[in-house]
Write a structure and sequence with these properties.
alpha/beta; eight-stranded mixed sheet; five-stranded antiparallel sheet; 13 helices
């Protein structure tokens, strides 16, 4: 009897000290327009709202490049684009760091079972979703593309289909199967589910489109024009490589900076409704995974993190998409719930590249070697804590003529990194965003600091609590005499951050 009790006690102790599991939600094109914590009430996201209530909301989190492949190469490797040299859809961090230990790989190396589905890494960069390095080979990595028809429209509300007929639903089912396998296997796990939506096209179950009826009630952006005084190089004249957008067989050219080129109001509202529906679809899938974690009895001992790979502009500044260094292109939702941590809200400046070392620390693992991010757990313990006094983003440009509207509809994604024309370096501090567009040195793969910049931007964020997507970055104040010391200080920050590389 005593021996039996001793064995039971040992088993209970072992269960109590098992390292926490990790559940990663990586969402494509998700802007932080969420009710709980972000005070944005346009979208219906009850499951993300619940996660925000239970975790720490990082209200001012920023990606390192506002496009899918490079940002994922950055936060999934723990290195900035200036180190990964992944600025396009050609190169991955494995080209320069074949022996770097990536985010999921670090957990795999520390006796976690690591499995993933959907869009975690960008398809093809690195190859095969970084298998077998990042992922355990117990089960195959599953990434099922969309096959449902969506002709002449970015928006396709579809009814009469099962959840698994949608790519995100099929990838979710694979993740649920992975979870079931890992719980039965035992030991700590790292599971990543990458949701494609709200990336275009917005192919969703019709029930999510119906949540936002009628279209007339959808709000419009207040400033459908580029920032006053903005250099042309800062603007993007395409949406994911498209020069036109379609909605139910109606099309309009992607706007230029002038307000006169903005979409008609009803077209803008329809597109916004499509985006909102796609976000609600992803929220529903996240809810199903959170329920499964509870049903398996592992929810309370699981670190759950949600991150958007970059922001997305829904007509603000007349921009539709990302591919910029503006606030709404680079700002991302970041929520982390961890066992033993009190829910909270932080206005501290943080970066996507901080995710990897933070989750490692929360799991009780040593700080990973040679990564660029910082540990954010001090902020989770004290929400008033400030770790970064500035955050950094960058974006290349490949125009044939920098003085005219940018004619490259590919966002440099198919341009060899040696052949970029300009690189935009952006610094965000507590009260300012400064961006300098520098001629590219294709030999040293860095901006040419010996030449005057192609253009500069300075935007005031004084008083910005991030709950207003319309008020800020509407006037470039880089040439205002009273701001010249700020400009000088920001230029120094750019040099310190990038010239060293």
């Amino acid at each position: 009897m005593k021996q039996t009790l001793a064995l039971l006690g040992a088993a209970a102790t072992a269960a109590a000290v098992q390292p926490p599991n990790v559940m990663m939600f990586i969402v494509d094109d998700l802007r932080p327009e969420i009710s709980q914590g972000y005070e944005q009430h346009h979208m219906k996201t009850p499951n993300i709202d619940q996660l925000a209530k239970e975790g720490t909301v990082f209200n001012r989190a920023f990606c390192q490049q506002a496009i899918c492949g490079p940002t994922r190469n950055s936060f999934m490797s723990g290195r900035r684009p200036q180190r990964t040299q992944s600025w396009n859809f050609i190169n991955s961090f494995r080209d320069v760091g074949p022996n770097w230990v990536a985010f999921p790989q670090y957990f795999k190396n520390n006796n976690y079972t690591t499995l993933g589905t959907g869009k975690t890494y960008h398809p093809g960069i690195p190859k095969n979703n970084d298998e077998p390095l990042s992922w355990s080979q117990d089960r195959p990595y599953v990434s099922i593309p969309n096959t449902l028809p969506c002709d002449k429209s970015e928006i396709c509300p579809i009814e009469g289909h099962n959840l698994t007929d949608f790519s995100d639903g099929a990838n979710l089912q694979a993740a649920l199967d992975d979870l079931d396998y890992m719980v039965k296997k035992g030991g700590p796990f790292f599971l990543a589910y990458g949701a494609h939506k709200p990336h275009l096209p917005w192919v969703v179950p019709k029930e999510h489109w119906d949540q936002y009826a009628p279209t007339e009630n959808i709000s419009l952006p207040l400033h459908e024009a580029a920032p006053e005084g903005m250099p042309p190089i800062a603007f993007t004249y395409e949406t994911d490589g498209q020069s036109k957008l379609y909605a139910f067989n109606v099309s309009h050219p992607v706007p230029y900076p002038a307000a006169s080129t903005a979409f008609p109001a009803n077209f803008t509202k329809t597109l916004r409704r499509g985006y909102y529906a796609a976000v609600s679809f992803t929220d529903s899938n996240i809810g199903l995974m959170m329920k499964a974690l509870k049903d398996h009895g592992v929810y309370d001992n699981t670190i759950i993190a949600l991150i958007g790979d970059h922001g997305w502009q829904l007509g603000e500044h007349n921009v539709w998409g990302k591919h910029t260094n503006f606030e709404l292109g680079t700002r991302v939702p970041l929520i982390i719930k961890a066992p033993g941590k009190t829910p909270g809200f932080s206005n501290s400046l943080v970066e996507s590249v901080d995710l990897y070392p933070t989750i490692a620390k929360l799991a009780g693992l040593p700080f990973p070697d040679d990564v660029d991010g910082v540990d954010l757990t001090p902020i989770m313990d004290d929400n008033s804590k400030v770790i970064n006094d500035a955050v950094f983003s960058e974006y290349p440009r490949c125009p044939p003529n920098v003085t005219e509207p940018w004619g490259d509809k590919t966002s440099c994604v198919h341009t060899a990194k040696q052949n970029f024309t300009v690189m935009g370096y952006s610094v965000r501090t507590d009260e300012w965003r400064y961006t300098t567009w520098m001629w590219w040195d294709g030999v040293n793969l860095v901006g040419d600091f010996s030449r005057p910049p192609v253009g500069e931007e300075l935007y005031s964020h004084a008083g910005d609590t991030e709950d207003d997507f319309n008020t800020f970055e509407n006037v470039n104040v880089v040439n205002v005499p009273a701001n010249q010391q700020v400009v000088k200080d920001m230029r120094s920050r750019v040099e310190k951050q990038w010239k060293k590389n």
